[in-house]
Amino acid sequence: MEESVSELRGTFISGRTRSVAWRKNQLEALLDLINENEESIFKALHEDLGKSPVESYRDEIGIIQKSASYSLSCLDKWVAPKKSELPLFLFPAKGEVLPEPLGVVLIFSSWNFPISLSMDPLIGAISAGNTVLLKPSELAPACLYFFIETIPLYLDNKAIKVIGGGAGVGERLLELKWDKIFFTGSPRVGRLVMTAAARYLTPVTLELGGKCPAILDTLSSPAKIKVAAKRIVGGKWGPCTGQACIAIDYLLVEEKFAPTLIELLKKTIKSFFGENIKDLKSISRIVNKHQFQRLHNLLEDPHVAASVVYGGSINEEKLVIEPTILLDPPLDSEIMTEEIFGPLLPIITLKNIEESIEFINSKPKPLVIYAFTEDETFKKRILSETSSGTVTFNDSMVQFLCDALPFGGVGQSGFGRYHGKYSFDTFSHEKAILHRGFYPELEPRYPPWTGFKLRFIKLAYRFDYFGLILLLMGLKKS
User: Fold this and answer.
1) DSSP line for 137-173
2) Are 205 and 408 in contact (CB under 8 A)?
3) Residue pair 335/241 in contact by the 8 Å Cβ criterion
4) Which residues are catalytic?
5) Can you tell me whether residue 391 is helix, strand or coil?
6) At 476, is the pLDDT very low, low, confident or very high (cuts 50, 70, 90)?
7) Burial class (CB in 10 A: 0-12, 13-18, 19+), 450
8) Tens digit of each residue's pLDDT (9 = 90 or more) over 278-331
9) Beta-strand relationship, 344-350 and 324-327
10) How far apart are CA 385 and CA 356, in angstroms?
11) pLDDT at 278
12) 276: pLDDT confidence band, cut at 50, 70 and 90?
């Protein structure tokens, strides 16, 4: 492990990865890796998570093809120095900001989207000119094996390496010195990463999660309500059967509208996934027995079980839990205090939908707030009175696809951001550069101090150039 990191550092010091040509070559090779191994990726994702080829392409392969292609098309612009305006009293001078790579980067990725959550940050790290050690999750072993087998065949193995192993390997990696750590996972492990990074003052990006709420306001037509129901079902059970940091965790709705909504959700679930637990289609499975038991335990609470209005069936052999709707489970139960990360959707009823703001603010800041509303005043209240990584109005999940928008959390849902140019920035240091000539010289900046020099400095800091001219001409005394 130490030898691998030493080789990565040696490669970075050599300057090879700073070349724009090298970066483009690696991004093109990464695209080749994805394009030439699509069937192998489909197979690995089905083996690890039961994902269908369509879901795998939508949430994994297509994400990476889009991200790498976008970075390739923008890289020349991103690496170029940006001119900065300087105060006139420094004339002649020129200022610019030059992005430079941070160095040797460690990326921890998660098991729920094992391809995209590994390669999307890798694209940013390569685009910025870093060397990288990628540590995919051991909980998706088929995808981990795919990376170990294929990455050395396509990418520069002296600059980009992948390592397997479990928690012990992760702990050993965190004992080493890195120039950047990028972590996707749980808040519990995120705290361990931050603690380890503090030893070397290593900058960290944490992509965590939390309980992402959806608010459903009264909509103006039945057709729009049906669309909202489809997007809620898609945003809850569509991404890895709810095992996603941006999946809808719970739904807030006015009490009078709950029965209608529940019926719409039931119909949509049956349309999307079927209604026989033994023959559910187009839905992933729970990743392993530990996570399956954790979710099953949430339903074992008698008060929670009593709130189930749809679903609740399980198939332990296949690690499948039926899409489940719960109406007003106890707010102090674990299902309402911890991130669910699975196919269980609590619906919490309110007297007035605007109470949703106070409800959301009573919990840690979420990664995303989804709000289905046509009320512009209510939208402004959500934006100004809540805090979250993202707010998405009248849809779910699609914000993750937008390279022009930053993706990341705030507070307990994480910090730092990536996607598109934001990925490049995350793995770069913006170096400030100032060029000056030797003349003219500003003598008032030096001792011995006088009243004239104090007046000169005050006027300069106020950018009062007319006043400076008058002072130099002896026409301004104070």
Assistant:
1) -TTSHHHHHHHHHHHHHHS-TTTEEE----HHHHHHH
2) yes
3) no
4) 207, 245
5) strand
6) confident
7) exposed
8) 778 899 999 999 999 999 999 999 999 999 999 999 999 999 999 999 999 999
9) parallel
10) 11
11) 76
12) confident
**b/e map 299-314, b = 16+ CB within 10 Å:** beeeebeebbbbbbeb
Cβ–Cβ contacts within 10 Å for residue 464, how many? 15
Q: How many residues does the chain have?
A: 478
Question: Which residues partner with 172 through β-bridges?
Answer: none
410: Cβ–Cβ under 8 A, 6 or more apart, which residues? 365, 387, 388, 389
Question: What is the per-residue pLDDT across 27-72, written as a single tens digit (0 to 9) for each?
Answer: 999 999 999 999 999 999 999 999 999 999 999 999 999 999 999 9
Q: How far is CA 122 from CA 286, 297, 306, in A?
A: 26, 36, 45
pLDDT at 205 over 80: yes
Nearest-CA neighbor of 151 among 311, 33, 275?
33
Q: Collapsing DSSP states into helix, strand and coil, what is residue 3?
A: helix
> What are the Cα distances from residue 183, in Å, to 54, 108, 341, 456?
27, 5, 18, 50
Of 430, 414, 432, 424, nearest to 105 (Cα)? 424
Both tokens of residue 84?
């900065």
| Whole-angstrom distance, CA of residue 428 vs CA of residue 129 | 8
- How far apart, in Å, are the Cα atoms of 319 and each of 53, 109, 273, 277? 19, 23, 16, 11
What confidence score (pLDDT) does residue 280 get?
Answer: 83
Q: Where are the beta strands (DSSP E) in 217-282?
A: 250-254
Looking at the chain, the whole-number percentage of residues with pLDDT higher than 70 is 100
Nearest-CA neighbor of 342 among 394, 283, 396? 283
| pTM of structure | 0.94
The three-state secondary structure class of 60 is helix
